[in-house]
Amino acid sequence: MHEDAARFLSQPVEAQPGSPLRVAVYSRVAEAIRNSLLTPGSMLPTETELGADMKVSRTVVREALMLLEEDGLIRARRGVGRFVADTLPRIGIERIRPFEEVLGGPGQHLEIKRIQRQRQPASEFVAPGVGVEPGADCWLWESVLIRDGEAIAHLQENISALPVSLGSSSAAAAPLEIDDDGGTLLASLIKRFGRVLGPGECQISLSQVGPSRAKLLDLRAPDPVLVLTQYVRHANRPFYLAKCLIAARAGHLSVMQSLQS
């Protein structure tokens, strides 16, 4: 590992108010990747080494690395170690739907249990997805989706400022405040502005739920979950980002397709 990267990663991290320590570790490693201190394909230090350098537990490091892998910034090679991804995730162009529509169905009762709704600094992962610099103010809506009495998904949604074309007077507007009517944030945006947002992309990957989110979904930490990461753009600018972890008990998902001529 390059000397500058080692020096950058060896500084102790501190959690921000209202933000878990694993997010601070995530942001430190992600910033090193985004700034090319950790180059594509390079090997990361071990969990033990990172924990000792940042003065945090190995469990915190493991959760942060799991999130980095979910978000496509690093990859793991069994028995070898973890490496920076060869290419960083892109933001694409397919249209998406709110998770009420994705996970609900005829004859099913879908309840959204709000865990938190607050303004907070954007992490290294959230910032490019909502079109702001890391540390800038944005909204987080965190929810558990419960279908027919069973928790089936954990959802985190982020949004930045209201785009100029939707009524903002400047690109530097304060984070958009949306009334909480009990649905997902994306559904609330569509209800307020109509289906004018987009285009968007949904990326699909597989991960383990991890200790913190396992409690919310009544799972074990190593249980597998499907990870859907949604990006929405407006006026060709990043605007909304969500990550949804779906438990196996949710069953199959349908993907809508159309034939392009």
Q: What assembly state would you assign to the polypeptide chains in this entry?
A: single chain
Q: Which strand order do you get reading across the main beta sheet? A: 3-4-5-8-7-6
Tell me the fraction of residues in β-strands, as a range. 25-35%
Globally, the shape reads globular
Biggest β-sheet strands, sense, barrel: 6 strands, antiparallel
Terminal Cα separation, in Å? Answer: 49 Å
Report helical residue fraction.
25-40%
Computed structural class: alpha+beta
Task: Explain what the structure shows.
By secondary structure, the chain is of the alpha+beta class. Helices cover 26% and strands 28% of the residues. The protein has 8 helices and 8 strands. It has a 6-stranded antiparallel sheet with strand order 3-4-5-8-7-6. The protein has a two-stranded antiparallel sheet with strand order 1-2. Helix 2 (21-34) crosses helix 4 and helix 3 packs across helix 4. It starts with a helix and ends in a 14-residue tail after the last strand.
